[in-house]
Amino acid sequence: MASTCFEKCASRKHKENDLALGEMSCSDRCVAKYLEAQEKVGVVLQKANEAQMAQQKSLQDMQNALGN
């Protein structure tokens, strides 16, 4: 994330030790978008995991019912 946002936002003609205001704003937005995307991916994966666990429980319940 850091290298991607830096490559996207930092000037190629970087002569100063600090980032310019526009570069800092760009970096802030880039990081915020990255974190938002990661959160959305996490939610989707969590829902998929919960669905898979429910399916496994249902399968095991059916196997137990047939076995008894």
Structure in words:
This protein is mainly alpha-helical. It is 81% helix and 0% strand. It contains two helices and no strands. It has helices at 2-9, 21-67. α1 (2-9) runs antiparallel to α2. The radius of gyration is 23 Å and the shape is rod-shaped. The relative contact order is 0.09.
Shape: rod-shaped
Quaternary assembly: single chain
What summary fits the major beta sheet? none
> Mean pLDDT across all residues, rounded?
91
Strand content: under 5%
Helix content bin: over 70%
Ranges with pLDDT <50 over ≥5 residues? none
Structural class: mainly alpha
| Total strands | 0
Radius of gyration: 23 Å
Contiguous helical run count: 2
Distance between the termini: 53 Å
Order of helices and strands: HH
